[in-house]
Write a structure and sequence with these properties.
CATH topology of the largest domain: FAD/NAD(P)-binding domain
Number of strands: 20
Bound molecules: flavin-adenine dinucleotide
CATH class of the largest domain: Alpha Beta
Distance between the termini: 40 Å
CATH architecture of the largest domain: 3-Layer(bba) Sandwich
Structural class: alpha/beta
Largest sheet: 8 strands, mixed
Length: 380
């Protein structure tokens, strides 16, 4: 049976929940994190490890410029998060595989270049530097790219981190700072009492004044326990890693020809993803979709031909947290005082450090360090 009281209960032990727990514990707060399974075993441990900053190309093309302009508060938020990523290895005294050598997108047609240019204008308005590169400059910067590239875009601040390293180190640091962490315990209900909430689990109930909802793709269920509809859902994705090969790709690589994110890990393996769907077998169990596997590998080999000569070692799946317009649900629940929703969709690994920073400030009753109006769906 769990202890019956905590000042703050965090639901979910992914990057957001663990980092929020660490920040709160370091401020001396009495914090209890409850995780349904293992720490970092959902999206935060299974993602592709891209540290994104630029507007994602496929969404720019399908949703258009008005959407991209409305998304600029998220770009600024991601930029602040990226600065926190830079400091994180030093803070945790750990090699997290953080390398910010830039992200580049390769184009094959003039129409794709026109989209990259239009995207770059909006990125510049948000204070994000993206350079437009002609064919020669692109291939000089990235000689591993296919020679059919006619040019591209380069965002110098982007990069990668190793998700398998990040959550364990965050968990260790949070526990060391005094956060209590309970795993394999699912929150099944939340009851309201005067001035408090009672968080119910099969192992007992916890009375608390404040709750941080960091349940990722499953956060809508936590909202429902409070009578709040959160427009967030889970979408099944898959990622593949190749055998280790000699280092040849320092960048995060995208393609304007289709969905792709590609990077090389410190051990030489190339991680290939970019939003290709996995399949649900039933009851939430995911399996890799062979069509996505071949589509994703074909896309990768078309952009970086050397990929065709590497063996794919392993594919895996996970639920990503998604909102329809890509904006986060971040802030105090207007109908449930003291409940903070800390949900950054689609690129929530990149945004994790800043999402946790905001959640921790609000959970301590302090103002958010960034304006949430225009950014968070909660304040529309
Ligand atoms: C395959 C894939 C690739 C991705 N690639 C990238 C990428 O390259 N770059 C990027 O920035 N983002 C990427 N993302 C998105 C990113 O991983 C997520 O947005 C981010 O990890 C969300 O973190 P989180 O802490 O909010 O949620 P999660 O990591 O999902 O953690 C939520 C936790 O809450 C727990 N939980 C849920 N319900 C309950 C409950 N009732 N009681 C107790 N615990 C509960 C879950 O078990 C889970 O551990 C990817 C996602 C996927 C799936």
């Amino acid at each position: 049976m769990m202890q019956e009281n905590a000042d703050i209960v965090i639901i979910g032990g992914g990057i957001v929940g663990l980092m929020t727990a660490r920040l709160l514990a370091r401020e001396g707060a009495d914090v209890l994190l409850i995780e349904a399974g293992d720490l970092g075993a959902e999206a935060s441990g299974a993602n592709a490890g891209s540290i994104h900053l630029q507007i994602q190309y496929p969404e720019f093309v399908s949703y258009g410029e008005d959407w991209a302009r409305a998304y600029t508060p998220c770009l600024r938020f991601l930029k602040t998060s990226l600065a926190l990523w830079q400091d994180l290895p030093g803070e945790l005294w750990a090699d997290l595989g953080v390398t910010l050598a830039g992200g580049l997108i390769a184009a094959r047609t003039e129409a794709q270049m026109a989209h990259i240019r239009a995207k770059s204008v909006i990125e510049a308005e948000a204070g994000i530097e993206t350079r437009i590169l002609g064919r020669d400059d692109l291939l000089r910067l990235a000689p591993y790219l296919s020679s059919d590239a006619i040019g591209g875009g380069f965002c110098p601040l982007e990069g990668k981190a190793n998700p398998l390293q990040v959550t364990p180190h965050l968990a260790g640091s949070a526990a060391e700072a005094g956060a209590r962490i309970v795993t394999h315990t699912r929150v099944t209900g939340i009851a309201r009492q005067t001035g408090a909430y009672v968080v119910e689990t099969p192992r007992g109930a916890v009375r608390t004044g404040r709750i941080v909802n960091a349940a990722g793709a499953f956060a809508g269920r936590i909202g429902a326990m409070l009578g709040t509809h959160l427009d967030i859902d889970g979408f099944p994705l898959q990622v593949t890693v190749t055998e280790p090969v000699a280092a040849f790709i320092p960048h995060l690589v995208y393609s304007a020809a289709g969905k792709l994110s590609l990077k090389q890990l410190a051990n030489g393996g190339c991680v290939i993803g970019g939003g290709w769907p996995a399949r649900e077998r039933g009851n939430g169990v995911l399996v890799t979709d062979p069509k996505s596997l071949s589509g994703n590998m074909g896309m990768a080999a078309g952009v970086v031909p050397a990929i065709a000569a590497s063996r794919a070692l392993r594919s895996w799946t996970a639920w990503v947290n998604g909102t329809p317009d890509w904006r986060p649900i971040l802030g105090e629940d207007p109908n449930a005082p003291g409940v903070i929703h800390a949900l950054f969709p689609w690129v929530g690994f990149s945004a994790g450090p800043m999402t946790a920073t905001v959640a921790a400030a609000l959970a301590l009753g302090r103002p958010s360090p960034v304006g949430l109006k225009g950014l968070s769906l909660l304040y529309d």
